[in-house]
Amino acid sequence: MSHLLSEFPNTSLSYKANHDPLTGVSNRASFETFLSQQVDSFLDEGRQFALLYIDGYRFKSINDTYGHAAGDAVLVATAKRLGSLIREQDRLARLGGDEFAIVIQPLQHGQDLEAIVKKMVDSMSHPIALDNGEQVPFALTIGAVVFPQHGETPKDLMQAADEAMYAAKKDGKNYYIREFFKGGEV
């Protein structure tokens, strides 16, 4: 029994070290480690995956209007909605503030990525209900890139995904997927 009890704190510490304390999804450090592992693995195997960079739209105004507790509730709800749309082998992380990232892997068909991104945008079309009953509208801007077409290192991929997200913001759209399709297959 004492052996089990001594393992529990280590498990708890490991969980805390690898997960965002607010949303429970992977944190930035854990995500960057995962992304590096995927790059190494997929490069060796010649397979592809997608990286999505996700930013909340006008999140600061939610904190200013409804308060920081409401902002936290919006982030938790956003993580739950995004998490419900990905598969077990994919990885969702909160990078900080209202920024999230997702690795979709493996990526089999080009049209799959656009369908996934559209589902994510659609999932946020419904306002988020706060505990006090108020409904808070919240939208996402998503930039999507594919490994290895848009970068062969984690740093290059993250930069490309960030640039794609800003391209979506600049165009006033919810998402931007960097061109990579080859006859519907990736």
Could you list some keywords that capture this structure?
186 residues; alpha+beta; 5-stranded mixed β-sheet; two-stranded antiparallel sheet; 6 helices; 7 strands
Task: Briefly say what this structure is.
The protein is α+β, with helices and mostly antiparallel strands.
Structure notes:
This protein has 186 residues and is α+β, with helices and mostly antiparallel strands. Helix content is 49%, strand content 20%. The protein has helices at 2-18, 28-45, 59-66, 68-83, 110-123, 154-171; strands at 49-57, 91-96, 99-104, 128-129, 135-136, 139-147, 175-177. It has a 5-stranded mixed beta sheet, sandwiched between helices. A two-stranded antiparallel ribbon has the order 4-5. The chain is globular.
Please write out the topology.
Blueprint: H1 2-18, H2 28-45, E1 49-57, H3 59-66, H4 68-83, E2 91-96, E3 99-104, H5 110-123, E4 128-129, E5 135-136, E6 139-147, H6 154-171, E7 175-177
Parallel strand pairs: 6-7
Antiparallel strand pairs: 1-3, 1-6, 2-3, 4-5
Helix pairs in contact: 3-4
Count the E strands. 7
**Average pLDDT over all residues:** 89
- Label the structural class: alpha+beta
List low-pLDDT spans. 1-6, 181-186
Largest sheet: 5 strands, mixed
Termini separation comes to 51 Å
